[in-house]
Amino acid sequence: xxxxxxxxxxxxxxxxxxxxxxxxxxxxxxxxxxxxxxxxxxxxxxxxxxxxxxxxxxxxxxxxxxxxxxxxxxxxxxxxxxxxxxxxxxxxxxxxxxxxxxxxxxxxxxxxxxxxxxxxxxxxxxxxxxxxxxxxxxx
Length: 139
Description:
This protein has about 140 residues and is mainly alpha-helical. Helix content is about 70%, strand content about 0%.
């Protein structure tokens, strides 16, 4: 017959410990996206890059999406990696993140930042399409 101690010591899987330091991630994100966005499109480009990169970073951080050193694939990125990749490679990374986010996350801390990522990304996509069509019609 099992004792109470044997039952209470059952294995409970806990989410992986966060290997990243938040302030270092934020400084790297702001500096890299601020500079790249400013060089690409001035202040507006810097603001857009920081906006979409920031909400993606916040969602990945709160959802526990961390880089696993034992795995080698394109979806294995740190929150800062997702935040930087989103505005830099938007056409490729936006659908990857939106469709694979639920498989990558290790904890459920709400969907507020994820919804913001979807909405801001959709607005950026519409703006890019409108800019492309208007350039084609003018030129």
